[in-house]
Amino acid sequence: MKKLMLAAALLAAAAPALAAPGEDLARVIDDHWVWYLSVNPEQSTALGERRYDARISDLSLAASDRAAREAQGFADRLRAIPDAGLTPSERVNKAILLRTLTETVEGNRYGQRQILFTTYYGWHQGFAGLADDLPFRTRADYESYLARLAQYPAQNAEALKITRAAVAGGYAQPCDVLGGFDKTIDGVIAKDPEQSRFYAPFRGARPGAISEAEWDAMKTRARTLITMVLNPEYAKFADYFRRDYLPNCRKTVGASAMPEGPAWYAFRVRAQTTTDLTPEAIHQIGLREVARIRSEMETLAKSAGYASRESFIAELRTNPRYYATTPEQLLQVAALEAKRHDGLLPKYFGRLPRLPYGIRPIPAETAEGTTTAYYGPGSPPAGLSGTFYVNTSKLSQRPLWELPALTAHEAVPGHHLQIALQQELDLPSFRKYAVSFTAFVEGWALYTEHLGVEMGLYDTPEKNMGRLSYEMWRACRLVVDTGIHAKGWTKAQAVAFMKDNTALTDANIDAEVNRYISWPGQALGYKLGELKIRELRARAEKALGAKFDLRRFHDAVLGQGAVPLDVLERQIDDWIAAEQR
Asked: How far, CA to CA in Å, does 306 sit from each of 32, 298, 309, 313?
């Protein structure tokens, strides 16, 4: 008996111990991150992983299928890990990664995956901005950049092949949104290669580690690539777009008119809002918000001495004193506004990011057809700041009274503050750099526009109407996006609804409606996310009373990075309970 017991003990000692659930989860997260970097080589370089420096992203459908299979494999591994053995933070990590992987798999099932461009982005513009997101400090940085430029013909050919198949299958973009789109292609073509966006890394000073002869040789290679490789490829896309795509563009505007359109739009709604709300429920929320904000606009107009909301908006749209006369003036006013916001942050936030941000104009070839501004994240590992991009085209359509709300949203306390802080949090890398839930990220940015009231940003009736117009703009999105894609609205109906309810100028309204048509569902996250954050703040204020600390609340909302709205609600409820204790 003693021998049997001794043998059993020896066998137990020799057998490997079962891994704890937390260890299994960590292994899956690490394996997933290695895989993620390998299939996103440009972002990999920006994050300091240099193994893929000479590669560009594979846009092929085979690559999409491969990514979906890999995502399914990671999802299966995650589901095999029991929640019972995980800490609360580990359970959140698991749930967020599982949600992301599941959406990757589901999205790949639809033919809409073949639509590779919208009025807001496309493979051609993504590649044109390649240099914006890469480090340029060493010889290897410049060499890998040139190697990547040389690979564009293969990427462009693959994208055009997919786009031709998409059109044949009924997945073309609507004709109504494509006016002027060819400028986003033609505008990249520069007769003088040194004026090309692709030449930007070589306009600065020569790095000390590169000899003058090497630098001259690199610049020559860049000019040759631009002239002999890149310009012809962009001309090829422009020619295809005019000759073949435009004659076969879709005559309908709603996603529901495409094959499996209703199911795909329902998926988009779930993914972009992180809720189970139906398009009809979202439509009704939007109508209620429009009515509420419209009433506030009426009250403001009368307090400012105008007979009606409409007369105040007419004045704001037409009086030239509210508009810059040069791009430089608009950028100067935006820069001053941004610095004013910077100085107010410590009063409202306990933790601030170290990474700064800069201001640049939106590239000229896309400016006329895109939104009034947007944000580009920076990268601490690559030494890249965040960027607040301002639209300096059509100056008569870019009112100065919008700048306080616009700057709050795109720069601080909005996107830059939230995203730069997320990059510094003690979180797995995929949550710092790869996860971006629209409802949280855009909901936070819209919440900060309203926070601007407390910050004193809207010190004139015009600026306050600008804020209300921006809030109305996001409320209208709930109505317009669902109206177009689930209720059969035309573009004209959407434009009329926006013009009747917001103070946005005609050019902005047209660009925005084109965006909603060509990018279904994305615009729904803003208002729904903002409403949830404001609801949670009201809950915290009521529960905590005099103990409520706004700085601590903001730090709690931002302290776990971007999360789905249901996860955020649980986190804030836990925070409220902790504050009460």
From this structure: 58, 9, 7, 10
Confidence of residue 3 (pLDDT cuts 50, 70, 90): very low
pLDDT band at residue 382 under the 50/70/90 scheme: confident
Answer whether 526's CB lies under 8 Å from 446's CB: yes
Domain ranges for the chain, please list them: 262-532
Sheet strands side by side (includes 357-361): 357-361, 386-390, 373-376
Q: Extract the tokens encoding 434.
A: 């790869």
Q: What is the band of 369 on the pLDDT scale with cuts at 50, 70, 90? A: confident
Do 290 and 130 touch, CB atoms closer than 8 A?
Answer: no
- For tokens 């209300």, the residue is 468
Using DSSP, state whether 171 is helix, strand or coil. Answer: coil
291: Cβ contacts below 8 Å, ≥ 6 apart: none
- Burial of 407: CB neighbours in 10 Å, binned 0-12, 13-18, 19+: buried
Give the Cα separation of 165 and 242 in Å (integer).
Answer: 17
Measured over the CA atoms of residue 168, residue 169, residue 175 and residue 180, the dihedral's sign is negative
Q: Classify burial at 477, counting beta carbons within 10 Å of its beta carbon; exposed 0-12, middle 13-18, buried 19 or more.
A: buried
d(CA 515, CA 369): 9
CB 440 within 8 A of CB 529: yes
Is the Cβ–Cβ distance between 479 and 287 less than 8 Å?
A: yes
Between the CA of residue 496 and those of 52, 483, 500, 502, what are the distances in Å? 48, 12, 6, 10
What is the H or E stretch that residue 540 is in? helix 525-544
The H or E element spanning position 389 is strand 386-390
The pair of structure tokens assigned to 545 is: 């009373």
How far apart, in Å, are the Cα atoms of 261 and each of 112, 177, 197, 249, 310?
Answer: 9, 18, 37, 16, 37
Q: What is the pLDDT of residues 395-450, one digit of tens each?
A: 999 999 999 999 999 999 999 999 999 999 999 999 999 988 999 999 999 999 99
Q: Return the number of other C-beta atoms located less than 10 Å from residue 273's C-beta.
A: 25
pTM, entire model: 0.94
Average pLDDT score over residue span 358-373? 93
